[in-house]
Design goal:
The protein has 11 helices and no strands. With 259 residues, it is mainly alpha-helical. The chain has a domain of 137 residues. Helix 2 runs parallel beside helix 5, helix 4 packs across helix 11 and helix 10 runs antiparallel to helix 11. It is globular and about 65 Å long.
Length: 259
């Protein structure tokens, strides 16, 4: 099965889609550069923005590469390459792939147990579950943007903007709280599963299970806390672009050392 997933037709199909998306990105980049020049932006500033964007995109993309490598052992290289190159996210892809594998009867996400029907189900779920951000943006983004700009007064005097700003902050605070709550729930679920597996490894009250996931999670969290402290308290904002990849790399190193 892994030979089929790494076959030339799979590379051609996934590669053509990735090339199309890359071409769209290049077109938008050129149009954005020309738009900047048309409104009078300094060409040096535009080139500096391009250079800095390229520089700060290299290391964070290491995390994406790690995700492709991690999933390629069970799903082949072309499919994870496609999913994580277009609109996927590492934590989403691995979570959905593992969940789908369990539902189709696989004990683990591995090439040895992979079947054509299992891969079809996994690939379908990985694609469908991520589509809703695009679909909802197409249907509701225009109305949402109008609401964001509705706080400005038509007379241009800016009167009443303070009250509108307070209302906007209240609306935004709910969105922020909901997003934070969602991530706390995800992290709690993962940490709970790690602790549960550790405690129930060999006995109800005897801690004899696998401690590696807990150690890795703690190390990665500590590294992320250091990145956050340096970027927010020490004003090293450029570290934000490296926090995810750095946490992943050091977490993987901890898994190797303590696994």
């Amino acid at each position: 099965m892994i030979q089929v997933l790494n076959s030339l037709p799979m590379y051609i199909i996934c590669g053509l889609i990735i090339l199309f998306v890359a071409a769209v990105c290049i077109i938008f980049m050129i149009r954005a550069y020309r738009a900047g020049k048309s409104i009078g932006m300094d060409e040096k500033v535009l080139k500096r923005a391009v250079t800095s964007s390229v520089t700060f995109s290299i290391l964070p993309s290491v995390g994406i590469l790690l995700g492709v490598i991690a999933l390629s052992g069970s799903l082949g290289t072309p499919w994870p390459w496609l999913r994580l190159s277009v609109i996927g996210a590492l934590h989403y892809e691995t979570q959905v792939a593992q969940g789908a594998a369990e539902q189709v009867g696989l004990s683990s996400l591995s090439a040895a147990q992979m079947t054509p029907s299992a891969f079809t189900t996994i690939a379908l779920l990985m694609s469908i579950c991520i589509m809703w951000g695009m679909i909802l943006s197409v249907l509701f983004n225009k109305a949402y943007l109008k609401r964001l700009g509705s706080g400005k007064k038509k007379d241009g005097t800016g009167a009443g903007e303070a009250a509108d700003t307070v209302k906007d902050k209240k609306k935004q605070s709910f969105g922020d709280a909901a997003m934070i709550a969602m991530f706390i729930g995800l992290v709690s679920a993962y940490i709970g599963s790690y602790i549960g597996g550790f405690v129930s490894g060999k006995g109800r009250f005897t801690f004899r299970g696998d401690l590696t996931p807990i150690i890795v999670a703690a190390v990665a969290a500590a590294v992320m806390a250091v990145f956050t402290y340096l970027s927010e308290k020490k004003h090293m904002v450029w570290l934000e672009s490296f926090s995810i990849a750095g946490s992943m790399l050091i977490g993987m190193l901890a898994a190797i050392l303590f696994g």
